[in-house]
Amino acid sequence: MPEHARVTLRYGPYRSCGIVEHRTFRLQGLQAMLKAEGHEVILKEIPDWNEVQLIVNGETVFQCNINDLDFGGDGKLDPLCKEACDAVLKAY
Fold it and tell me: What is the pLDDT of residues 40-51, one digit of tens each?
C-alpha cells in the first residue's frame, strides 16, 4: 500500500469538437486527487484512443475511457477519480 507512490498516468487522444488529439482537460480532477493524496503524477501520451491507464510499480492498477471522466474540476465529485485513487492505494 504505497502512500506516496509514483503514478504514471498514460492517456490517449480523444475527439473533441471534431478534432482528435491528446488533451489533459479531462485529467485535471484525477491529477488533483492523486496529488492531494501525496502521489507524484507523471503524464505520458499513448497512441490508444480514449484510453486512460494508471501505472504503479510497473503494473496497471486502473484503466478507463477518458470520456467517462468529468471535464475539469477537482475530481471530488467524480466517482471514477475516487475509484482510481483507491486502486493506487491498493497497489503493491
Answer: 999 999 999 999
